[in-house]
């Protein structure tokens, strides 16, 4: 492995010296929402933070809304007294000086911020709920009117109606059918007049803990020979950390033969039998999969030109 990296450096070295800026590293910046809500009322504030997964260098941070470069430079980005038009998809990127010019990290995945000019916002959990979870949806109001009724809608149809001051709705043991576009309506009386406000729709997706296994069969004679084929079982396991330990990843059952593998989420096995069914048991948690970005030293750069 060391030899391999060493050779790669040798091969890349002339290119590194010759090529022009800009350069992009294999690091990706990560933008995180520090304040509680990604949908805020106009006039409220917001805090985002950018982190760069490389502690060895001193990176400065560049901020973007969509493709527009913002004037802010620090690790922290704050919006005060937000205006509706200040919403958008925020991302960040690290940049630093080096002997070969300015080096940049990959731009972070964006965080979407909505600035709402209305009176009610329906807040969904920041993590995607799993089937069987209790889903909490809260209606947030501008100000504190003396409310007497709150209604939750899914796809425009009433789901829960509560009287009193309670603005939190609980849906227990959710299934895939509970996914949809949710909104809330709140009413109150002031001087014998009834006021009613409704939020915009918030999309709620529900994840299955264990997706139905999908079998992929590769039977390329040139690659595997006449008597062999490759079976790949695709199954996704979505339990939140700490995930229960999985003893076996996937079991492939064939005619008379059962092959088990405890290695990876997509198990690959070679079998002779043609008729195979799959049965997922305890798949491995996601963190055991290989990392998305190979760990290359920062000096192994890809020229983006
Ligand atoms: C890191 O960079 C910032 C701005 O680019 C500079 O103000 C600061 O002194 C640097 N810190 C170190 C330890 O080099
Ligand atoms: C939310 O979406 C549903 C279905 O698309 C629609 O019927 C409903 O009117 C929408 N509600 C709001 C407040 O936009
Ligand atoms: C609001 O109502 C739900 C039931 O719909 C209940 O579980 C919850 O405790 C109530 N919250 C408050 C603050 O009363
Ligand atoms: C949750 O829903 C599933 C499927 O509808 C049902 O089998 C299960 O008994 C429910 N669990 C609870 C605690 O209600």
From TrEMBL:
SMART domains the UniProt entry points to: IG (SM00409)
Position of the signal peptide: 1-19
SUPFAM superfamilies in alphabetical order: Immunoglobulin
GO terms for cellular component: external side of plasma membrane
GO MF term set: transmembrane signaling receptor activity
The keyword Repeat is annotated on this UniProt entry: no
Protein name: Ig-like domain-containing protein
UniProt lineage: Eukaryota, Metazoa, Chordata, Craniata, Vertebrata
């Amino acid at each position: 492995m060391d030899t391999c990296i060493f050779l790669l450096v040798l091969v890349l070295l002339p290119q590194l010296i010759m090529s022009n800026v800009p350069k992009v590293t294999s690091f990706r910046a990560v933008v995180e929402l520090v304040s509680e809500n990604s949908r805020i009322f106009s006039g409220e504030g917001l805090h985002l933070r950018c982190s760069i997964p490389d502690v060895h260098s001193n990176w400065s941070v560049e901020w973007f809304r969509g493709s527009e470069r913002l004037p802010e430079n620090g690790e922290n980005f704050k919006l005060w007294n937000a205006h509706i038009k200040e919403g958008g998809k925020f991302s960040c990127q690290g940049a630093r000086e080096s002997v070969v010019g300015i080096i940049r990290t990959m731009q972070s995945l964006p965080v979407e911020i909505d600035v709402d000019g209305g009176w009610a916002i329906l807040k969904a959990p920041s993590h995607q709920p799993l089937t069987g979870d209790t889903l909490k949806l809260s209606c947030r109001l501008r100000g504190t009117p003396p409310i007497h009724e709150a209604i939750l809608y899914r796809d425009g149809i009433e789901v829960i109606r509560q009287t009193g001051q309670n603005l939190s709705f609980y849906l227990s043991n959710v299934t895939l059918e509970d996914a949809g576009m949710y909104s809330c309506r709140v009413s109150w009386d002031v001087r014998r007049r009834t006021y009613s406000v409704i939020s915009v729709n918030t999309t709620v997706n529900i994840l299955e803990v264990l997706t139905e296994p999908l079998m992929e069969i590769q039977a390329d004679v040139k690659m595997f020979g006449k008597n062999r084929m490759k079976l790949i079982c695709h199954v996704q396991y979505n339990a939140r950390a700490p995930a229960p330990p999985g003893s076996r990843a996937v079991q492939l059952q064939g005619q008379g033969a059962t092959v088990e593998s405890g290695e990876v989420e997509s198990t690959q096995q070679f079998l002779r039998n043609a008729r195979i069914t799959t049965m997922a048991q305890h798949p491995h948690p996601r963190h055991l999969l290989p990392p998305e970005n190979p760990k290359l030293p920062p000096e192994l750069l890809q020229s983006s030109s």
